[in-house]
């Protein structure tokens, strides 16, 4: 895409109330824009990142054999009354009445919706197991929305639900999802740890949170100094010795990116979602629930991938793979860069071409660093004398000259 056509206006000055690094850079680079407290617009660059993460998640969910659905944002009061969560969910639901005075709520989660859908279609053990997932906006009536995308009222989330007749099968799938989550976060450029957690409002037999350690995190976790054990401090408030190996538990600040729950029969019993086993006995369906906060994930990626100039996007989720920059207004340089852009596009490379003539070299480079596209390709009078272009990875300082006739081959290896 030509940058002269991109709907994007980077900023030099932003509100002094913006503290988190991710919030600062996502606003300065014009990826997101606040409308009201805890609610953000995703502009073209931000939306590209969002869709790239969704693509990774869909690939991993498909590898689990899960099927995608899309459930309503507006939720039925009667379903929430079945689980006794209409009045007791925390934080409180966003409730309102329609023109017919019928009460409903904006969905913060979808256990009731998915269980209702499944109980109408499952009758026998032969209908099980299976899993369903969706990617959709959620709404949490937070007391305090902070840190840009780190804690919001409206956010994008992936939620997966699994349904089983045997506990062994549920546990096996639960572990497969955990492995899949590690893959997702690794592909997003993050090293996470899974810790024991309090099931909280969602409930269930046990749960794990996926945490990335960072000083900006609002959660406190305890991590063993000898083994891989970790737990949210809410789970083991006073413990100082590892229950797994006896090592010392160290306190760390972290951001929660995902939460998985072994729900058991919590919702199926309350909502009478049953199946008949091989003996003809009626049993409640065993369930698992597995969530990832996609909006928060974007913020965490920026928190862990930046420098004093801006964002450093991991390759797989960056809005563009390459940032092609034409230095100078000389017609020969412009023509050569235009031809290179067309060539790269034909080869299938995802390129942002800075073709703007009203920006200085300093402004072009500063915006390039701020936006954080992984690889910058520069065409100038100097590089063309060598029949080359300058190529620099965002996280590196040095630029290297690559012959134009070898560029495609070089970029495919990047």
Number of strands: 23
Structural class from helices and strands?
A: alpha+beta
Counting H and I runs of at least 4 residues, what is the number of helices? 11
Mean pLDDT across residues: 96
> Class of the largest domain in CATH?
Alpha Beta
- The shape is elongated
Please give the share of residues in helix.
25-40%
Proportion in β-strands: 25-35%
Explain what you see.
It is a single chain. This protein has 414 residues and is α+β, with helices and mostly antiparallel strands. The chain has two domains: 3-307, BirA Bifunctional Protein, domain 2; 322-413, Rossmann fold (3-Layer(aba) Sandwich). Helices cover 29% and strands 30% of the residues. The chain contains eleven helices and 23 strands. It has helices at residues 21-28, 44-63, 77-82, 111-119, 167-187, 266-270, 294-304, 331-346, 361-371, 381-385, 407-413, and strands at residues 32-36, 39-42, 67-68, 74-76, 94-97, 103-106, 130-139, 154-164, 193-197, 206-213, 219-224, 230-232, 249-264, 274-276, 282-284, 286-293, 306-307, 310-311, 322-326, 351-354, 375-379, 388-393, 400-403. Strands 3, 7, 8, 9, 10, 11, 12, 13 and 16 form a nine-stranded mixed beta sheet that branches. The longest helix has 21 residues, at 167-187. It starts with 20 loop residues before the first helix and ends with a helix. The model has no long low-confidence stretch (mean pLDDT 96).
